[in-house]
Amino acid sequence: MKHLGRIFSFTNAFRGIGFAFCTQTNIKIHTLTAIAVTVAGFYFRISATEWMMLIFCIAAVITAELLNTAIEIMADHFCPHYHTKVRRIKDCAAGAVLITSIGSAIIGCLIFIPKITVLFG
Length: 121
Fold this sequence. Notes:
By secondary structure, the protein is mainly alpha-helical. It is built from four helices and no strands.
């Protein structure tokens, strides 16, 4: 019976990911970016270390977006009307996504710009 609980945990997790993907535009953008970066990684034959960095960045950004979505849903549930403190909570959660995305973009640039300049220069 313990195994069924684990299976349901995965089901719940995938349901949450599916919900976020179906309802949140930003997670779709992050997913498309992840696909493009993955294709670029195969095209440029990046190293194992570079793959590890990219996979970590992709996971971090999507995780941050999922947590942001969860925080927004919870905040809206408990405080459906506008409240300054709730706005600050949501802004901080969105800021976490932004910082994660900027850091990931910088890592992507450090990996791909040298490869692109060799290709075109």
